[in-house]
Amino acid sequence: MSTSVLLKGGTILSHGTNDHITPLRVTDLLIQGNRITKIASGIEAPDDAQVIDCKDKIVSPGFIDTHHHIWQTQLKGRHADETFLQYMPSGGLQGSNYTPVDIFWGQHGGCLEAIDSGTTTVVDHAHMNYSPEHARNALSATVSSGIRSFFCYTPTMRVKSWTPEMEINTEDLLPIWIMDQLEELGRQAPFGEGRVELGFAFDLLFLPKEMVIGIFERARKIGVKLITLHYVNTGTYKLNNYLPKVIWELTRDPGHSYVDLLSAYGLLRPDMLVSHASNASASDASKLKQANIFISSTPDTELQMVLGDPVCFRPDFKPISSLGIDCHSNNSASIVSQMRLGMQSARGKHNQAIIDTGKTTTRVSVKVEEAFNLGTINGARAVHMEDEIGSLAEGKLADIVILDALSPGMCCAAQHDPVAAIVLHSSVRDIDTVIVNGEIRKQNGKLLPTKLEKQVPEVGGGEVQWPEVARQLLKSRADIEKRIEGTDFERATKAALKIFGGGEDMVVNE
Hints:
9-stranded mixed beta sheet
């Protein structure tokens, strides 16, 4: 196997001062091992190098996805017309109908879809831990895929029963094995030759203060690299039936938030990442900035699922924003799609405010370069890896996406402005090659085979190509559908409303 890869004669997107991107035309990039060692014109190929002709190609930093529930692959297609309260029973809580083997294939397929879309790093909020085997299989599937990941192990809210009414297991919200397994994984981390780091995801902030503080302290002592959590400040989506009165009153009050709560507990530190932050206050933004904590905005789900407007281009949040997919069961796994949707949503909102005054403008509120940076260098900052990933520079890890500049969608746009071409004209079909940690994972528009770990007996080891992964996903999906069969989702949505929304008086259906 070649230990060097030479990308020859491409247009390399180079970040400079203030994150401005300069296209370096007809330029070479040399990868040796897992790092970029040289960017220049006319690089001579080492004897062991695999040379990739990048003429009429754009060479971009790999895209960074800072919030994703990777395991949900088999649920794709079911959330198209759903809001958050419908999604929770039909998607978010469906880990109860997954066996550990289902989790393996869902996770592996989700990682490969991300790679196919140009994502090289993902923050995986892995909220499907129904058993130790679920977590082990998800981790093995992630390592086998070749993606770079923060596998954020999650104490998961588990369904006790689906009939006659959906019920959450409140007697055993945090079983002993959860933190014990986290400790075990902490001793073994990192995984996949350093590609997969152990993180922690936690949304059970309704637990007593001393317990929450103790859990955070234990996770940090274990050595997790990142702690992530959901936060939507609508005053609607709270765990009503489980919040102790003091926390319910604090977080329900529009003047307070989970950010205030975590600050009061002394838990806000740079190792955290907050997902969504929809409707967050200026005070929230200030406290997060002071603590060097980033947020992950997921425009697709935020706009659809009644979570509120994306905040990624709000002036107070933009410096600490990154982009995530959230649920590829609901939308594409393409970070470029989130760049585009977030940017155009922000532009539209800004423009409408001007139109409402009876005037117009000759200036857009958000530029394509800003959108591109949210999915690259700002994503790297969100996970505190900006010195390693997020841009192309000598000495950095070789996480790279190569796009076809002559495809029907990209031709002419790529020659005029490569960044605009990616953000506004590209699709997954334009992603020719994906390199993660110096290893080619997609080439000539096709995913390369993956080597499965032998740690999952029911799956086995060896090399597997995408058609076989797809076959296993379809079989798994059929099995899950049989388990779901008979669930009254209208009734389950009403149960979700009681848990997350308060009561039917909170719902407006017009």
